[in-house]
Write a sequence for this structure.
């Protein structure tokens, strides 16, 4: 079966005063129906820009989709105008943003903000929209939904606001929900609740989830498949178990080694490993592998030739020259 | 809400008292008073002039005079204009409609120009439209009203002879003719004052819109597929108008100040030209009353700003 969403060779560039910033540079990602895909990578690796490019939510200009296809249910979204995309936004693809504190309009009630999405995409009266909004708030476990629906965002805590965001993203029952670091801004205890809620909602509505995160813990808990991004490119892609048991790309290995281990006894405990250096600036990036300057296995070829993404095991792809030698 | 307004009005009383005290002291310290004319008038014997001054209490200590003025004001007695030979309140009520008509229309014109232009410019920053609007706005608020006023008179009254340049309160004719004439003579002062206001307001609206347009919740609104117009009007404008409303209300004193100049240029018999002529004629009761009316208007507009603020922004609770 064809995947629900297939991103092929996506390049999203931003023009800046210093030149063209290649935030996303040839990314391939596909998501199947009903699956949870995690996109991981450190800040600035292009995962958010990739997600925002799908519905053209990046600022254009300065942003621009320079190349690539984004095929959703057999239809390429890249050539569509913003007006045409409005039919897909929220209705087919819902969005949950990172910052629940700033992602809700402070001057409108949360009920209005959820209901306007319903009224936009479905033929419902104001009263029906309100009823369905209250139902959604109940689903995301907001206590006293009938009363809270008329409250403003500042009257909610961070976790509650993120529940509101989830209710908003799911109101029109989209086939795909893109959650951009939905738990990063929350307390650890609340993070787990929100992830559980997302999982519940997924089981109830059967939608696919593209979860963007930099927390490997979140990945292990939720994902079926994982895409690892580095400096605007996909470096590794694998089913979640394979990725944790057999990470192939040195960057992925580094990411996994940087997770604190609680299961080891004190004798085996080692210092937490960090990946030295930082993400390269993506204006005129160097040829070759972008991770090479930080890679402990870097070879001659790494700075000369760009490694291509290739399949090394069923469903497991990575982009590194290391595999070539063996 | 009504309790809040009531309390704000009660709070306004001490500040108005303070303003009136300062105004009174400043006017008392200023040289000249309504009877200084008499001292130089050869037809009035000096002892009569002195007796008159004593009778009207002009030689009393300043605090007595202030208390006297205050109790008279409290009884609704605004004083008597020695120059116009009529009660000050009648005089002000005669002059106020012309001022409110011109300033009100100018302010409405300013809003009608500034909000659409500012909003549209902000949705397409650095576009040709934005750059033209910016340049015109810059020219607009660089040119003072006394300059543009005279320029307008020169072009539209003297050269083209389209519009009258002296504002008249007793227009002949009735009905629609009267209305048309009232509009015709107000065009130039309203344009001069309104476009001057619109210039700075446009830039303010634009920057307020730009501040909001890049916020996260605007992206959220876009992600709902609401469409550009709805996103801009419902999500961006609603938030951007909060600082704009404050600015407009706080600008009102400056608008009245600017109106004084405009009224002088176009000979509008409004409250501003009354103030100028009263100052020149040492007509202290009128000067005191007019400046006090200005002070009351400023306090009133501040109150309006606060109420609107609470209405526009639910995060501010008016308690």
């Amino acid at each position: 079966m064809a995947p629900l969403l297939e991103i092929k060779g996506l390049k999203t560039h931003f023009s800046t005063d210093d030149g063209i910033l290649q935030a996303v540079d040839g990314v391939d990602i596909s998501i199947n129906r009903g699956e949870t895909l995690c996109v991981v990578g450190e800040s600035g690796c292009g995962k958010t820009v990739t997600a925002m490019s799908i519905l053209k939510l990046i600022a254009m200009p300065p942003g621009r989709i320079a190349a690539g296809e984004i095929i959703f249910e057999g239809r390429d979204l890249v050539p569509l105008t913003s007006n045409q995309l409005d039919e897909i936004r929220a209705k087919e693809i819902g969005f949950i943003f990172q910052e629940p504190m700033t992602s809700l309009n402070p001057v409108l009630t949360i009920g209005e903000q959820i209901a306007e999405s319903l009224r936009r995409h479905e033929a419902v009266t104001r009263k029906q929209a309100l009823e369905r909004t209250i139902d959604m708030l109940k689903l995301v476990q907001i206590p006293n939904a009938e009363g809270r629906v008329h409250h403003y965002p500042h009257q909610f805590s961070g976790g509650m606001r993120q529940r509101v965001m989830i209710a908003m993203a799911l109101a029109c029952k989209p086939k795909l929900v893109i959650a951009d670091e939905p738990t990063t801004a929350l307390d650890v205890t609340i993070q787990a609740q929100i992830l559980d809620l997302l999982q519940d909602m997924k089981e109830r509505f059967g939608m696919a989830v593209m979860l963007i995160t930099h927390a490997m813990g979140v990945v292990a808990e939720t994902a079926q498949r994982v895409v690892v991004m580095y400096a605007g490119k996909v470096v590794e892609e694998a089913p979640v178990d394979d990725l944790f048991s057999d990470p192939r790309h040195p960057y992925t290995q580094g990411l996994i080694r940087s997770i604190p281990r609680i299961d080891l006894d004190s004798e085996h405990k080692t210092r937490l490993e960090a990946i030295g250096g930082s993400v390269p600036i993506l204006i005129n990036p160097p040829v070759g592998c972008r991770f090479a300057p930080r890679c402990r296995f870097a070879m001659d070829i790494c700075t000369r030739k760009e490694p291509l993404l290739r399949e090394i095991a069923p469903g497991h792809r990575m982009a590194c020259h290391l595999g070539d030698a063996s | 809400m009504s309790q809040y307004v009531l309390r704000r009005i009660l709070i306004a009383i001490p500040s108005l008292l303070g303003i009136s005290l300062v105004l009174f002291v400043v006017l008392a310290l200023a040289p000249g008073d309504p009877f200084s004319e008499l001292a130089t008038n050869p037809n009035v014997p000096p002892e009569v002039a002195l007796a008159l001054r004593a009778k009207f209490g002009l030689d009393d200590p300043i605090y007595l005079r202030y208390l006297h003025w205050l109790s008279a004001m409290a009884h609704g007695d605004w004083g008597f204009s020695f120059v116009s030979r009529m009660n000050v309140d009648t005089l002000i009520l005669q002059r106020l409609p012309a001022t409110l008509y011109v300033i009100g229309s100018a302010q409405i014109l300013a809003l009608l120009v500034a909000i659409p232009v500012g909003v549209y410019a902000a949705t397409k920053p650095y576009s040709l439209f934005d750059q033209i609007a910016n340049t015109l706005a810059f020219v607009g608020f660089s040119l003072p009203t006394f300059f543009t006023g005279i320029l307008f008179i020169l072009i539209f009254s003297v050269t083209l002879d389209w519009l009258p340049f002296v504002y008249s309160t007793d227009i002949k004719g009735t009905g629609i003719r009267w209305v048309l004439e009232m509009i015709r003579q107000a065009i130039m002062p309203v344009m001069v004052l309104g476009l001057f206001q619109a210039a700075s307001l446009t830039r303010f609206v634009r920057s307020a819109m730009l501040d909001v347009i890049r916020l996260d919740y605007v992206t959220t609104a876009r992600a709902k597929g609401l469409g550009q117009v709805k996103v801009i009007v419902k999500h961006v404008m609603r938030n951007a108008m909060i600082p704009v409303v404050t600015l407009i209300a706080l600008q009102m004193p400056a608008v009245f100040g600017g109106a004084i100049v405009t009224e002088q240029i176009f000979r509008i018999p409004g409250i501003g030209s009354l103030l100028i002529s009263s100052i020149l004629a040492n007509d202290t009761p009128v000067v005191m009353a007019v400046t006090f009316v200005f002070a009351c208007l400023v306090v009133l507009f501040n109150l309006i700003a606060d109420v609107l603020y609470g209405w526009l922004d639910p995060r501010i609770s008016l308690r």
